[in-house]
Design a protein that fits this description.
Length: about 475
């Protein structure tokens, strides 16, 4: 990415596009409790840790916005070294924002029982408020439990210790339907402690609030943020040590289009599985196994400097002029004509492509009891040769890439019958071919894809998969 540079621009992290997008410039104010000496330093914060109230189990409703504001502008008293007093003194440390960021990256914590208890308490209060049971608890007279028809009660009742007792026990009624987790109950009523939208107001003194009118203070800046991503840690209930990270991301209409009209959607990314989900599932949390880790909020507007950024491909046409052959002995056999300066590929140019592969590890299969062969482990293939031919122009049909790819791994099958590759062709010490590195050839292929060339070939889906390159479907003509 490149954009207009200022004359006095510095090449440091504070001037990077990442810092411009997600960075928060803060003033860290340190004030000695004894001599009242105040020092202020400038900090750039890329991630905000949510700080929860100390009394996490206290049944007091606290909004997500208030926790966010206190976390962005925390204040604490801690012993610190005072240069004037020349000793450790109780010191007040506070942070004040200079401006509101465009993106909020929030670390939910949740790595201690206190954080989990606070979330559980807030979720419970929301549920009670919805059900109308948040006030005084009603005293319900206990009802006598009776066995169902046709079943006798155990004479030992609740004191029975036999695990295989066939008689009825009063406690069995409680075990029939275990209570739903509070997070699951909130999901049923489409409610959550985490909002989809939050508006922040920054006053002149650097304090952030969720209300526009704050004690007569003048609002310096305001910004509305929308939730666009949530990362969660999924815990295996059987083996708590086994965990997995998943993410729920709101994908905009510019990234995908469905039949009909392109719409904004939420997707869950679970390893290689990507599945569309309803928006409410993104803010549904079960604190026993689906624990929130990081929350991302983004403002509607984009920083002005980022709007002026232009994409510059780091791979240039010079990659075709560079001869990266690594052959060490003998004379090279050039079986292609490199592209001339006037032949550089453009969008829509036709390129015929073919690739040959060798086997590094054979397929492992087993014969099942029904007589069918089942694949246990697929064969491990490696690209060995890539050829690209001009599809139009004065030199139509003439190759401009014919690279053999050197490999340091042991080849178990050269597939000579199909590929034409023989032992030694991929060895820099013995090969007489135009032998190059995978990186060099990959950069050429990447340039052709980025410039919009259209590839023609047979079975290109498998070829591109083994080459490990993604080509838009509109740039493929598979014969």
């Amino acid at each position: 990415l490149s954009g207009p540079k200022q004359a006095d621009e510095k090449d440091d992290v504070e001037d990077s596009p990442v810092a411009e997008l997600i960075g928060m410039h803060q003033d860290k104010i340190t004030k000695c409790g004894k001599c009242q000496t105040k020092t202020t330093t400038d900090n750039l914060l890329l991630l905000c840790n949510l700080v929860y109230p100390e009394h996490s189990t206290l049944k007091k409703k606290t909004s997500f916005g208030s926790v966010l504001c206190s976390s962005l502008c925390p204040e604490q008293v801690t012993p610190a070294w005072c240069e004037k007093c020349k000793k450790y003194q109780p010191t007040t440390q506070s942070r004040r924002l200079r401006s509101l960021p465009f993106t909020l990256s929030l670390n939910a914590g949740m790595d201690n029982p206190g954080d989990l208890a606070f979330w559980s308490t807030q979720m419970t209060l929301i549920l009670e408020e919805h059900e109308g049971t948040g006030g005084e608890e009603e005293v319900v007279a206990p009802t006598e439990q009776v066995p169902p028809p046709g079943q006798k009660a155990c004479r030992y009742g609740m004191s029975c210790t036999r695990s295989d007792c066939k008689f009825w026990h009063p406690s069995q009624e409680l075990l029939k339907e275990p209570a739903l987790d509070v997070g699951d109950q909130l999901a049923k009523i489409q409610k959550s402690w985490v909002p989809f939208e939050v508006t922040l107001y920054l006053t002149e003194d650097g304090i952030v609030n969720t209300k526009e009118e704050v004690g007569g203070k003048e609002v310096k800046e305001s910004r509305t943020y929308h939730l666009y991503a949530v990362c969660c840690n999924v815990v295996d209930p059987v083996n708590p040590e086994a965990t997995s990270l998943i993410s729920c991301i709101k994908v905009g209409p510019s990234y995908h289009a469905r039949i009909g009209s392109p719409v904004s959607q939420w997707y869950i990314f679970n390893d290689f599985t990507i599945t569309p989900i309803p928006p409410q599932e993104a803010i549904w949390f079960n604190l026993k196994w689906k624990i929130p880790c990081i929350l991302f909020f983004a403002a509607e507007e984009v920083p002005r400097p980022l709007e002026l950024l232009e994409f510059c491909n780091p791979i240039t046409v010079d990659i075709f002029a560079e001869d990266k052959t690594i052959q060490r002995v003998g004379g090279k056999r050039i079986t292609f004509t490199p592209l001339g300066a006037e032949e550089m590929p453009k969008k829509g140019d036709l390129v015929a492509v073919d690739a040959e592969f060798v086997t590094l590890n054979q397929e492992e299969a087993e014969l099942r009891s029904d007589g069918k062969v089942s694949t246990v482990k697929a064969a491990h293939m490696s690209v060995a040769r890539i050829t690209c031919v001009r599809g139009d122009g004065d030199m139509e049909g003439v190759p401009f890439i014919d690279d053999y790819i050197a490999t340091q791994e042991q080849v178990v099958d050269y597939l000579t019958k199909f590929s034409g590759i023989k032992p030694g062709d991929l060895d820099a010490n013995f090969s007489s071919k135009h032998l190059t590195t995978l990186k060099s050839t990959y950069q050429k292929m990447r340039f052709l894809v980025d410039c919009g060339a259209i590839f023609i070939g047979h079975g290109l889906k498998n070829d591109f998969r083994v080459i490990n390159i993604v080509v838009p479907i509109e740039q493929i003509i598979d014969t």
